[in-house]
Amino acid sequence: MFTIIGERINMTRKKIKEKVWERDADFIMLEARKQTEAGATHIDVNAGGDPAKEVDDMRWLTEVVSKATKLPLVFDSANSLALEEGLKLCNRPGTIINSITGEKKRIEDILPLVKKYRTGVIALTMDDNGMPEDYEGRMKITRNLAKIIEEEGIPLDKVYFDHLVRPASTNPGQARFILDAIIATKREFPEAHIALGLSNISFGLPLRNNLNKVFLAMLMAAGCDGIIIDPCERGMMNILLSAQAALGLDEYCMDYISAYRQGRLR
Amino acid sequence: MFTIIGERINMTRKKIKEKVWERDADFIMLEARKQTEAGATHIDVNAGGDPAKEVDDMRWLTEVVSKATKLPLVFDSANSLALEEGLKLCNRPGTIINSITGEKKRIEDILPLVKKYRTGVIALTMDDNGMPEDYEGRMKITRNLAKIIEEEGIPLDKVYFDHLVRPASTNPGQARFILDAIIATKREFPEAHIALGLSNISFGLPLRNNLNKVFLAMLMAAGCDGIIIDPCERGMMNILLSAQAALGLDEYCMDYISAYRQGRLR
Fold it and tell me: Per the CB < 8 Å rule, is B168 touching A248?
């Protein structure tokens, strides 16, 4: 199964922050439903509007979002108290914690929750030295994290690596090594998953949707089996269905053809 | 440079055959101009409407098309007489013969023309045993062809391999090995080029443009540096510019940004 984490309910976005602080449940529920209908498999919930209010906002958001959708949630925070507040209220099969990194403190804070609640976990390829700007650096962190996670007795099929895409405009050639890192990760740790936040690729460029779409197709050809996106973004689900058909992941293109018959392809 | 061979002027298409036999030069010239304006780097000319008329039709088509565009032509035939008729009339820098295969007779007929006129040549990965339906078979022919071509003293940068895409609907998983064959070909023969006819991927499926576009993005991530397409097909040039930007082939996305400013991106 391809993991599609809907990223819209994120309090670092101004509009969402306002609506959460107004406790506008209708607005937030609509955001959850729109993403569910668009084809998301998970709904990300980020309550990071203000550190002082995060635990409280996470509780409210979890209650509201879990009423609006049956999908599992992705609890998105570096604060273990906020994460646990959400997990206590809603821990459906497929729930994911977003995220650990290679940073020692973050591992110590958050990995116990992954074990206790038996959730999945997104692992970002950065560590106490920052974010390495090359293939070898990201793979080194990938391997370290896989080792730590396995030593904790967490099966690797619970892990979703995010190799941290940077903007093509300022980091030329970086997409190439991200693709190579995905190929290597799936070869070395075939049970592990990928959950890549892809829209950063187009940061600072016009018509960002163009770049997001081609990069999604490239990621899928490299073996990427999960992404964090706005599933309502024009054409993204089209690319997903078309890429699965082209790659033979959708055998005899049956999903593609039925999506067409249902009017879901354009 | 990325090679974009415009495929529209092909007499196996009913409309083109009719117009050529009516000697409708205006229609054919417009086909050449439309492809040139859309961004083609080469114009394919296929006069294969009727074997008895092919040499004559190739002469007429070459005269007409070479008047309409300054681009180099791609002479598309298995008939060496038709190929030479075209080459005598128009052999601009960049001209390509389309095509040889691993078939003994075809090599003997056509490779002498490649040498005599110092053209490029498209090499299809099939031979006297037909078209192999796996990665190993296609790579074996690729290697054989590279060897034969080098032994004839033709530099490999004159060669454009076409790994023969088959429909995703009937050959699931075939796109995967085509991508792998491109990666291997560019690794083993870095000077050689690719010129893949990509639209076959979507044969028999609805909304073919969707599959053609995602497959183009995947091909480019695999290192493909040339395609045979209809450059007027909606969105194809968008994908090309976006993929080059994403992959860092268009450094700092300058081509992408200037295409946007000129209104060539949508």
Answer: yes
Among residues B98, B65, B110, B128, the alpha carbon closest in space to that of B196 is found at B98
Whether chain A has a CB inside 8 Å of the CB on B224: the answer is: no
Note whether B194 and B160 are within 8 A (CB). Answer: yes
* pLDDT for position B265: 87
Q: pLDDT tens, A71-127?
A: 999 999 999 999 999 999 999 999 999 999 999 999 999 999 999 999 999 999 999
Task: Report the pLDDT value the prediction gives residue A171, as an integer from 0 to 100.
Answer: 87
| Bridge partners, residue A228, by sequence | A5, A197
CATH architecture of B1-94: 3-Layer(aba) Sandwich (3.40)
Q: Which of A168, A218, A253 sits opposite B218 (nearest CB)?
A: A218
**What pLDDT was estimated at residue B266?**
78
Tell if the CB–CB gap between A168 and B245 is shorter than 8 Å: yes
Residues in B closer than 8 angstroms to A169, CB to CB, are 245, 252-253
Q: What is the mean pLDDT of each run of 10 residues along chain B (266 residues)?
A: 96 98 98 96 98 98 98 98 98 98 97 98 97 94 98 97 94 90 97 96 93 96 96 92 93 91 87
Contact (CB<8Å) B213/A242: yes
Instruction: Answer whether A187 touches B (CB < 8 Å).
Output: no
Q: What is the ipTM of this complex?
A: 0.90
Strands ordered across the beta sheet of A96-100: A193-194, A159-162, A120-124, A96-100, A73-76, A42-46, A3-6, A226-229, A196-197
Reference B185, options B151, B228, B229, B135; nearest CA is B135
